Amino acid sequence: MDLPVWQALHTELGERNLTVITVALDSGGAADAGPWIREASPTHPSLIDVRHLVAELYGWVNVPTIAWIDEEGRLVRPGDPGWAGDYFRRMVEPDFDHAAMMAEYARLRAHYLDAVRDWVAHGPASRWALAPEEVRRRLAGPDRDHALAAAYFQLGTVLHDDGRAEAAQGAFAKAKALRPESWSYKRQAWHLEEPGKSAGPDFWAAVKALADRPYYPRHDL
Amino acid sequence: MTTVTIVSEGCVTRASAEPGAEDLWLAPPVLRASTGWALEPAGLCRGPACVPIPPGRQTEFVRGDGAVNLAALARQRGQAAVHDDEGRVWVFGAPAEARAANRPSLEAPDFTLPDLDGRPHSLADAHGRKVVLIAWASW
Fold first, then answer.
1. pLDDT-based confidence at residue A199 (cuts at 50, 70, 90)
2. Boundary (domain end) residue, out of A96, A118, A138
3. How far away is chain B from the Cα of A176, in angstroms, using its nearest Cα?
4. Which residues lie below 8 Å from residue A8, measured CB to CB, with a gap of 6+?
5. Engineered SS bond to A191: which of A41, B15, B88, B139, CB 3.0-4.6 Å?
6. Is A25 exposed, middle or buried (0-12, 13-18, 19+ CB in 10 A)?
């Protein structure tokens, strides 16, 4: 988890008018997200979103996803995976090199954090600040299906809270059918069904089924 | 009447209501206490926000006994509306204009969520500052 990295950025750039807000999309609430948050000792707002409302509002389908928002409250970048990349998919290969993966992620992380610093320093003149029409293009999609999927997902979380596990998985199935690209719906539903399942054989089978499609979409950052 | 769980824009309440196939009828005092909405001359209102009842569709929103159809109100606001098979749990999503994809202004959707100590924080608290907003998860 990268909470300590975000906390360090908040500390570094707080006096330059940047606020970092982290949101845990965790339907298990503090029981699931709490240990990670406590370990990071955040002084930035580190929030817990049991219904995945932020994903619903911003149209996000995976974690991590990161938005940049300017001083006027407008979206400058509507959703990037940060330094997360598809390198992890090679873990199933026999000659997988863990150190090489960590080095690659470290390189991407340094690049991404430099991009944030550049935007904080130069605002709309930063090469990483997107034009409004590009932000709009990235937000576009079948909004009604996405909204319906979010509602079914939330229904699943409430049914799960009520101890109605089977009905919950039925609602999650509807959410997943309406928004098959959402890894958050899949993995949260698996996790609620059985801790560990979100990174187990079902997850890896779903990743394999992507074939040559990306797990984390890479934009220009 | 039966007790139903209502989730609207992420807030969970329980209320006495009469669920139908696609309708959820609440008596006015229950509606006001559990959701903040009330029937007024301008339509269905919560604080300064009013949703006019479309002409000719009064019976879809308000019944002869005064009960209000919360599902019709939600649909009118562009909220996705779903419920479980028994009609005991109803979920109304974010209104259409609250979702980023529907905002020509590109204004980042506001939200209020608790931290680990239960203290609420809103994105709007950071207005006037740049914000990096990160979604992550433990799973």
1. very high
2. A138
3. 15
4. none
5. B139
6. buried
User: How much is the pLDDT for B1?
Assistant: 86
- ipTM confidence: 0.97
Q: Where are the alpha helices (DSSP H) in B16-57?
A: 28-35
User: How many domains does chain A contain in total?
Assistant: 2
Compare all CA atoms of chain B with the CA of A198 and give the residue at the minimum distance.
B139
Let me know if residue A218 belongs to a domain: no
Q: Which domain holds residue A160?
A: 141-209
Q: Considering only CB atoms, which chain B residues are within 8 Å of A38?
A: 116
List the CATH number of the domain containing A37: 3.40.30
**Within this chain, do residues A84 and A46 fall inside the same structural domain, yes or no?**
yes
Is the CB of A143 inside 8 Å of chain B's CB atoms?
yes
Within 8 A of A17 by CB-CB distance, chain B residues are: 128-130
Beta-carbon contacts of A91 under 8 Å, excluding residues fewer than 6 positions away, are: A101
Give mean pLDDT, residues B78-94. Answer: 97
CB-nearest to B81 from A132, A151, A188 is: A151
Structure token pair of residue A210? 């992507």
- Cβ of A20 and B99 within 8 Å? no
Do residue A152 and residue A183 come from a single domain?
yes
* Closest chain A CA to residue B123: A21
